[in-house]
Amino acid sequence: MGTRAVKPTVYPEQVGRMLRACAAYREGDLAFEVFKAEVWRCACAIEACDELDFREFLQCAEARLDMAQFGPESELGGQAAEVAREVAAECARRLP
């Protein structure tokens, strides 16, 4: 995740849905497994060539959630919350 400018996404509905999922997860209104599935669903929806970096970012985020899920239980919440913050920030950058 960088601070470079990005073109607005051609997937505003998916990005908005991802932002809502991040917020719901951070508020405790969305289960970890559902949040992880939303990240993967959004990554799979990104097909435009000029947004492949966004798809890769989401795939990496989902992989980090996998590692957190199967790592020490005591670290799951903190790691997942960090991923949620990073995904939300990246999604916010991509909205017009």
The percent of residues in helical segments reads over 70%
Structural class: mainly alpha
Gyration radius, in Å? 13 Å
Query: Per the principal axes of the C-alpha atoms, what is the gross shape?
Result: globular
* Mean pLDDT score: 91
Note poorly predicted spans.
Answer: none
Count helical runs.
4
Would you count the extended β strands for me?
0
End-to-end span in angstroms? 18 Å
State the order of secondary-structure elements, H for helix, E for strand: HHHH
Percent range for β-strand residues:
under 5%
Largest sheet: none
Summarize the structure.
28% of the residues are buried.
Kindly describe this structure.
With 96 residues, the chain is an all-alpha fold. 73% of the residues lie in helices and 0% in strands. The chain contains four helices and no strands. The longest helix has 22 residues, at 73-94. It is globular.
Summarize the topology.
Blueprint: H1 12-27, H2 32-45, H3 52-69, H4 73-94
List the keywords:
96 residues; mainly alpha; 4 helices; 73% helix; 0% strand
